[in-house]
Every structure is written in C-alpha cells, then in structure tokens.
Amino acid sequence: xxxxxxxxxxSLVIAEENARAEAEPDQGIAQLANLIAEEGLQQPxxxxxxxxxxxxxxxxxxxxLALKQLAKEHRLPSGCTDGVPVRLGSKEQARQASLSAGLSxxxxxxxxxxxxxxxxxxxxxxxxxxxxxxxVAEREVEKRLKLARLAPPIFDAFARDAITIEQAQAxxxxxxxxxxxxxLEPHGFDISAHAIRRHLTEGETPATDKRARFVGLEAYEAAxxxxxxxxxxxxxxxxxxxxxxxxxxxxxxxxxxEEVRGEGWSWVLAMVAFDPALHQTCYRxxxxxxxxxxxAKEEQGRLVARLKALLDGPEGTEPEEHDLxxxxxxxxxxxxxxxxxxxxxxxxxTDDDRARGGVxxxxxxxxxxxxxxxxxxxxxxxxxxxxxxxxxxxxxxxRCTEIVTQALxxxxxxxxxxxxxxxTAVLARSAFSHWSLQGVKLAISGFHPSEGSExxxxxxxxxxxxxxxxxxxDSLAETVAMVQGLTEDERRELRAFxxxxxxxxTEARSDQPDHGARRTAALIAERxxxxxxxxxxxxxxxxxxxxxxxxxxxxxxxxxxxTGLESCKKADLVPMAVRRAKSSGWLPExxxxxxxxxxxxxxxxxxxxxxxxxx
Length: 615
Description:
Blueprint: E1 3-7, E2 12-14, H1 28-39, E3 45-50, E4 54-59, H2 61-72, E5 84-88, H3 91-103, H4 110-122, H5 127-134, H6 138-148, H7 152-159, H8 165-171, H9 177-187, H10 193-200, E6 205-206, H11 210-215, H12 217-222, E7 227-228, E8 238-239, H13 242-261, E9 267-270, H14 278-281, E10 282-284, E11 288-289, H15 294-312, H16 326-345, E12 347-348, H17 351-356, E13 358-363, E14 369-377, H18 378-385, H19 394-413, H20 416-432, H21 459-470, H22 476-484, H23 488-499, H24 515-528, H25 540-543, H26 548-557, H27 570-584, H28 593-596, H29 605-614
Parallel strand pairs: 2-4, 3-5, 9-13
Antiparallel strand pairs: 1-5, 3-4, 6-8, 7-8, 10-14, 11-12, 13-14
Helix pairs in contact: 1-2, 3-4, 4-6, 5-6, 8-10, 15-16, 19-24, 20-23, 20-29, 24-29, 26-27
C-alpha cells in the first residue's frame, strides 16, 4: 500500500533510480516554477525513504527542481511551505515507475532510457521480463541494452547529441570499448555511420555473401565461426573467418558434385565461382530428346486421347460451348504433368556425352547451387575430328572475317532504331549475364581492320561520323552538353555510330571458327537485314591466294560444270572465279551468315541468342 506524506523540501533529493537523474536542468524549470507558484503543486512527488531524514524522489525531478528554485526566491505556494506532498513507495518500485513515467514524457532523451534499461538488467531483471513490463519487443530491449554498453565517451557524446543515433548504432557493432574510442579519436564526431561500419567490419564477409547464404549461419557457427551481429540493420551481420566460410562452401559443393558424379560423367568440378576460363577451354553439348517407345508410348497415347476428350467435350458440342468443371480441370493438369514427366524421362544426355563430357557445380549470385552439365574440353573435340589442312589460308580467312565485321558495323551505324535495341541488349548482357558475349565488345579503341582488308569508304557515313566528332568538345562536360542539345533522332544516330566500332568477328585461323561470334553475327545480320554482297564481292586479291583445288571447289559451288578444273592454270581460274562470283553472288564459307546459325558447339551459344532475341 502506498502512503502519502508531507516532507520538508530541504530533505528531498533526486533518487539515483530516477531516469533523468544525470540529465542537465532544462530551460522549462523556470516556467514550471511560475506555474506552481500561481496554481500550486497539482501532482505530488513520488519517492522512497533514504536514510533517517531524506526522501529520494524517483518521479517528479522537474517539479522538485522548480520547488527548490521557488524556495530560493521565497515564492513557495502555501501548500508547500510546511512540507511537500510525497507519495511514498519502495526502492524496488522506484526504477520501474521512473522509467515508465519517463517513457511517456516527450522530453525524455533516449540515452536516459538506455541507462535505465541497463540498470534494470543489473538489478536482476531478464530481457523477457523487461520487454513484458514495458510492452516492447525483446529485440528492442536488446538494442537499448547494446547502446547502453557503449564506451562512456561515446555514450556521453550521444547523450548530449554530439553524435546521432545512427552513429551510436554503428559503434555498437563491437563491444570492445578500446576499439570504439580508438576509431573516434582520429576522426572525431564527424565520422559517418557508414564509415564507422566499414572500419569495424574491415576484412569480414557480409552475411549476404553467396557462400554465407549457401552454408548458413548456423552451420558456420557450429564449425567455430564468429558472427558479428548487427541489431540495427537487416543485412548488417558479418562473418569474421572468410577462410572457414570458403572451406565449408567448397565441402558442401563437393558433396553435391559426388552425387552428380554418379551420373557417369568423365569429370566433375566443384567451385564457389564459375571459372570464366572454361568459356574458352570447353564447349557444351545439350540434352537430346529420345523416341518414346513401349509402355511409355502406349501411356502417352492414352493420355493424349483423354486430354482431347476433356477439352473437346461431349460429342456434338462445340469446344467454345464446353465449360470444364473444377474436377475436370484438375484432371487436365494431372495429365499434362504426367506427359511432362514422360518427356523428361526421354530427354537427356547420351552415354557418349557423359563419357567425354563433364560437369561444373558452382554457386549463383543468390547462393543457390547451380549444376552445369555437358561441358566438353576442346582438346577432346580436336582429338575426335582431326581436321585436314584447311583449303583456305588463314590469312585469307582472317581478311574475310574482317570484311564481315566492317559490313555489319556499317549496317548497324545506318540503322539507329535497331542499333538502339541491340545496344540495350548488349549492355543488359554485360550487366546481368553470367556468360560473356562473343562478337560484340564495347571497347573504347574500336575495331581496326588490317592493311588490305578495308572496305571502300562510305562517304555518307564518313560525313555523319565527322559531323559528330567535330562537336564532341575537349571535355566530358562539353560532350554531355552536346548530347543534351541533340534531338532524339540525332541521339539514336550517335548511339549507332558508337556501337558500330565495337563489333569484331575476326577469326585468325580458318580451322578455329568462333561459333559463338558467328551466331551473334548471324542474328545481327538477320535483324539489320544485312547482305554482305552490298558491301563486298570476292575479288582477284581473294582468289589469288587460294590453291587450285580450293579455286576449283569455289567454281563448282558457283555452278560451274566444267571438268578438269584442278588441272587448269591458276592464272586462268582466278579471272573465271572473279566473274562467276560477281554474277552468281557467291560468298566464301567464312561469311555465310545463314549457315552460321547451324552450329551448336560453344558453351555460350544458347545464352547469346536468348539475350539478343529478348531485346
């Protein structure tokens, strides 16, 4: 039971449990004193007996200070001259009652609140008990206790608003007071919360890292790893032992790799990040669909017949007039799911694919394991094929592919609208795709054909190119201002000119075609309506470098029916080939875009086509 007493003002002191005991007197004390002088003390103080003569006030600090000021000024109201009314409680009630009153007061500084929560913990209260008492989440209690444990110089700076709550929360990433103060001393109070976090977590791995997501914090901690918890940020936790994290991720990936090895592949690699070198050293084979036979074929036939009956409805009913019931729709979905199962069961890699191919198990950017099957090392391909000596010299082949590059670049530059689509697709691949794009390289220097491979100058394109070059200015700021002043059509035209030099389909050797680049070239040629014949026809310089057998093969491809071409003099074959090529529109194999799409021999072919078509 609480008692009301009157107690001499001079024997009233502020209790140490008072949540604002350490706060500086605020400017509102004088105002409150005037109000009490006019209207009297409307609300009694709350305190407990301290020693023989004193009462410690745990609720009513500001009122007590106002009364003491009035006493100095000899202005105490009549109800307080003989003693001040006090509601007397116990010391055990003091801290809880004071904190409850402070939390409801708008002038209550958070630092005062954090101190009181810490004192409650020191008094033996548990986090769940404190949370229940003050109707806050346990995590919120933990946050306040964490801030209360800051190094005294930092906590005091926060209490007097020398640092922000965000800075205080950043310092709380570590419980090491020496480290907190050591970071504060050279930088002062101006150091940002971001900089504090960066310094305190330097060398640590974010919990959002793909390895951490894959391994899991629980498994990492079970293996002895230390986690720095950030109570104040959703993604702020960091892991201290990067080496341990990598070893755990590799071990878990290796377990998946061992399961995949049971499929019969010749080799299986497990790695955290996919090795880009595999793009060059391997090409990829893909699953093939096999003929459905036997019982599976019979089941497939029954499923197709039943599905048709469900969708067509009763005999004599038009399909659009037939509404399926919910049970019938469930049956349709079940049939379609079973048909998919049959298809998957009859789609896969051949035994030969597994015997010569391999698998890479790695993590994607989300930390999910990704299994790349069907990788075949290029040396194995060479051992299988052992091609004969190429009939077209490598230098001639290189010249042809340089001509391809120039021709496509001209078509790109001449078609700004389509170039904008292509540029967006290329940029999207560069930003988001795991696979590199062959044939288009956003390079600053651009493509330059070797001597003797240049196409005749296009004066119209050259004039427009010179027009833009002259307006660039000497600085980036001038270029930005120039671009800002262009019309949208001019900007599209400029983008096309900038994209065109990034194309490069050059192949140094005729026996090592770049199938990925050829597929890119074929797709560009199709979208831009390119026809190499509009830019180049095989000339005397080209045919002069071919052997007689190669000349004879070329003439037969052009429709020549003469016999004994191999025995003719080269001096006779070359002019004949030049004339026939011009009249027939014949092109060397190196530049036949339509046929380039037939190849499936590179690791990235399907990804290239999908990305560009998505544009």
